[in-house]
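Usage

Read records sequentially. Each one opens with the input sequence:
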Amino acid sequence: MGRVERLSSDRYEAEQNKESQHFLTVATKDCGKVLIVEDEDELAELLEFNLAHRGFDVFVAKDGLEACRIMGKEEPDLILLDLMLPLLDGWEVCKMVRSHHDQRIAKTPIIVLSALGSTDDRIKGYDLGADLYLPKPYSIKEVVIKAQQLIAQHRERVQLTESLSSLQNLSELQDQWQQVLFHELRNQLALISGIAEHLQSSTADLSYDQSDELTGQIVDSSQYLGALADNYLLVKNMENNSEHLQSESIILHDLLTEVTLLFKLQALQKACDLEVICPEDLLLNLHATGLKIIISSLLDNALKYSLLDGNVVISVEKDDSHVWIEVQDDGPGIDDEDRNKVFDKFYRAVVTHEKAAGAGLGLYMARSLAEAMGGHLRLINNQLPGCCFQLQLPC
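and closes with the structure output:
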């Protein structure tokens, strides 16, 4: 392709010598990635030489197609773009960058360096998305200074965007964890209400021991709700971007037994047996309240869909690095088409809509908590009827 104006090596050497010598004395540092798109070797080498000595990581493309390949691979912080290029000209490259599906590439600053210096060309360049248009011959020093400024501005915009996105995600996380707490609050209040109604309607038929046991369950549920309120740090830990929720030493058997007692009345109403199979001396370092909420959600789910006179079993296995807690029921199970959706927020299988009330949050929140604790919750296949949820947590 023809060149409107070509500057000779001698002219470059005469015009840029002082500036090049100045840049040679500057200490290098990581200033960002710059992609030079220039088919004239002398120009490309001169730009690369000075930018590299100013601390930039420099890539050079001799045509528009090569430039596109490098952009996708390296994601530069700045593009120095000639317009009259072989294969794909600079106008098209500029349009492709600005219309790129990846916003990190689409927002990349572009400095057009071209021998096309007319007003119409400059307007066209800006219209296509150039951040700066410098006609040839240009000052190497000006190019480097403008590159530094544009990259700094670009990084500030990226950081601001990431901060805004982080705030949005934080707001969503806070909302989710509040839903965790309110969901558990509703469950426990329903249990307390059920026990209280049972006491009120059966006072004459209950022995002292039976009344005392039911009253004790109310006390246990009330204390659990108090613990939940005290552990609003669940939300605060997520706000602080903690990788894991704060842990404490617990005896797993005692914790599981404590949670199952909260569901004793619900199990009695369906004539279901609740069984805990766990070593009594198994000591773990976990977030106790988070684990209680997970087990509570799994038990609530198991009892909600279990059959009359059924069985719900919590079993535990452990190795050197992980503990597996499985909650197995012998209910109707979950259809294959629903198995991958049961942890989705607000999702409830169609076949269960008429069987039990709920907002479709329990399993979603249980998995979210498990992941916040560094573990994983999944629905596994086994040889028994019903559902088996497996909670894997680090020791």
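Summary fields computed downstream for this record:
- DSSP finds 14 helices and twelve strands in the chain.
- The longest strand covers residues 311-318.
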